Amino acid sequence: MQSVPSNSPIEQYLRHLHGKFARLEDGAVATYIPELGRARPGWFGIAVATVDGQVYEVGDSQIPFTIQSISKPLVYGLALEAAGLKRVLSKVGVEPSGEAFNSISLDPQTGRPLNPMINAGAIATTSLVPGNTSEERRQALLEFLGEFAGHPLVLDESIYQSERDTGHRNRAIAHLLRNSDILTGDPEDPLDLYFRQCSVAVTCRDLAVMAATLASGGINPLTGRRVLQAQNTGRLLSIMSSCGMYDYAGEWIYNVGMPAKSGVAGGILAVLPGQLGVGVFSPPLDAKGNSVRGIRVCNDLSNDFGLHLFNTPRVITPALRAIQTGADVRSKRLRPRGELELLRQFGHGIRIYPLRGRLIFATLEPVIRAVMEDARNATHAILDLSQVVDIDRAACRLLLELREVLLRQGVKVFLTGAAERRTLQEFIVSRLDQGGWKQICQHDLVDEALEACEREVLRQHTPTAQTLLEAPLAHQELCRGFSPGELEDLASRLAAEDLPAGTNVLIAGSPADAMYFLLQGEVGVFLTTPEGAEQMISRLGPGMSFGELALTDRAPRSATVRALQPIKTLRLSFEAFDRLPQEGLEHLQSKLTSNLVGVLASRLRSANAEIRGLK
Fold it and tell me: How does strand 380-391 pair with strand 412-416?
């Protein structure tokens, strides 16, 4: 398990929840077991554990308290594993009672308790814990609960003694079960074990890990060990859905939508299958024996993060497949070799995170972890949403909070591909305003954001040679190494052409008769797709040349080059190039050709690096 940064947006949200309900004074600490009454009403912890072993916790998440009735579904799982389904069903049913946890709800014909979540059913379940002696059964139960928590658990002796000395109603229930032969032998033995299982000490964090173990099909996400068979895990979750919150179960599953179990010490364990587990601890209870703060926390968690069991996808696909860097991936702007070398050297600070699929809490939570870990040495971060098909409000909130965290770390953040994400746009505008939306999503295309990042990196590392607005012949990539005399000889054979924006300087399929040095402005290189659409594949600025590839084979133009803004160029006809040896300037032709080879090789290396980055 990796450590969670304290500034994680998810942990920040949990702190928000904790602060929201910490001063809630409704409810009362349970006193029918005298030792429980010693709990402090202000204790309050929240923990969330994911199925891949990440734990987020805030507040009093490490304070021990007794598990109480939260042990019931877990011990029911132990009984299923040890005794098998048929025998367990002969001892206890699976129907909701609609009554309180200590109700005496027995089948009038068989004496069988209605379900294992009420005390009668739990005592019957506990009688099936394996072992030849009382001590062996105690050890088996304690070890099983410890497997769920991921570490050994201990008994709270003072709570156990208090439960044992005041558990007269449970004692009466045990004898009724003995009378119906649901229990065999001395009922005091399973009853004592039941008192002990309720008195096992856990923390809020333990509850979250136990819940995550159920969420992952019975495999503890911290230890990787299977605690419960998958089919028995499903049976537990079914029982928790219908009976886990007693006479509040229907309203709970309707509003919160997660199988859950509460305990009178103030704990609540909730499970979202396939995704996460929740643990909340707060001793004050409502009239039905459930933690007041715990219910409010789970309700907000479910609503804010869209965690309702019946509103979330069962198949979760990774939202971030690969992370790219500015050292490997280039914008469409073709750059001189010197700039390319600088980007290869310093472009690692530019991080590109292409997100995809549906963004909900379960898919975005691991992305947040990965981005926060990866962006520790980043200078720029591009979160690209162009391949996202849907995003809910919970994911919108987390994305904005992730952006704020990165900004506080000194990382400049770009949100691209967001123009069609209406939910995100409405969320940002509602939180900020239309200006805030434009500021956050100023570049809709990842290529535009990447070029802006490249520009800033180049400025930072070449402060005296910023991206040129104008590049005379001496600064042209193909004129590298030319002497003043050679530049003069070349200039005398060039024709100046100033062209307005929108001019097609070269047209795909037309004859190739010249190349151009770009002195000022910007051009785009366009190809026609098989569907007939036009797509820009690269941009060139001052200092770059175009049309020069045809020097090698004189084939028709393979692409259209269009002025994206007014441009100034110098045109070298191929006829003038071919005459250079006859004019005694063979060395000039050789240098141009050599530089062209170097430029093409540099572009090829850059393209190969980008392909590797995409893989």
Answer: parallel
d(CA 88, CA 132): 18
Q: What is the 3-state secondary structure (H, E, C) of 63-124?
A: CCEECHHHHHHHHHHHHHHHHCHHHHHHHCCCCCCCCCCCCCCECCCCCCECCCCCHHHHHH
| Cα–Cα distance measured from residue 374 to residue 330, given in angstroms and rounded to the nearest whole number | 19
* Beta bridge pairs of residue 83: none
pLDDT of res. 465: 45
pTM for the full predicted model: 0.79
- Intervals of the chain under pLDDT 50: 1-3, 464-467
pLDDT given for residue 551 in this prediction = 86
Nearest-angstrom CA–CA distance, 297 and 317? 27
In whole angstroms, give the CA distance from residue 488 to residue 477: 16
Report how far Cα 241 is from the mean position of its chain's Cα atoms: 26
Which string of b and e fits 253-262 if b means at least 16 CB within 10 Å?
Answer: beebbbbbbb
pLDDT of residue 278: 98
Q: Give the pLDDT confidence score for residue 100 in this predicted structure.
A: 58
Neighbours of 173 (CB within 10 A): 28
Tell me the residue type at 270: A
Ordered by where they begin, the domains of the chain are 9-311 (3.40.710.10), 324-461 (3.30.750.24), 473-614 (2.60.120.10)
Q: How many CB atoms lie within 10 A of CB 8?
A: 20
Diameter of the chain by CA atoms?
118
- Report how far residue 213's alpha carbon sits from residue 207's, in angstroms, rounded to the nearest whole number: 10
Taking only the tens place, the pLDDT of each residue in 388-429 is: 888 888 888 898 899 999 999 999 999 998 877 777 777 777
Distance spanning both ends of the chain, measured CA to CA: 27
Q: What is the set of active-site residues?
A: 69, 72, 194, 246, 264
